[in-house]
Amino acid sequence: MDALASISSQMAASLSHADSRPTDLQGAAEQFEALFIHQLLKQARSAKLADDILGSEAGDTYTEMLDQERAKQLSTKINLGIAEALVLQFSGRAKSSAGE
pTM (2 decimals)? Predict the structure, then answer.
């Protein structure tokens, strides 16, 4: 029971400092945007009409890792607005700007 009490106090301390970490929120939002782009690339690649003649599991793994890196790079170069919307929503600024 003591472990549970210490966990809840740690969670409370973490939540009380949530407003003081806007860079963590921005980083998480950008990672989410990269994940979104990765899913788009993955779905686009899965829509191929025929299997590759030289396809293999190693090639599939390489392609998956390549798509992950492309998604990270694209998320830094292309602004889809997802990261900004998440930051606004989770920082509490969306409520104040919606009321104006």
Answer: 0.62
User: Distance between CA atoms of 41 and 64, rounded to whole angstroms?
Assistant: 9
CB neighbours of 86 closer than 8 A, spacing ≥ 6? 25, 28, 29, 32, 33
Cα(38)–Cα(14) distance, integer angstroms: 30
Q: In this structure, are residues 67 and 37 in contact, taking their beta carbons and an 8 Å threshold?
A: no
* pLDDT of the chain, 100 residues: tens digit per residue: 455 555 666 665 665 555 557 788 888 999 999 999 999 998 988 887 666 777 788 888 888 999 999 999 988 888 889 989 998 988 876 555 555 5
The domains of the chain are located at 22-98
Helices (H) and strands (E) in the chain, counts: 5, 0
Handedness of CA 52, 58, 60, 64 (dihedral sign): negative
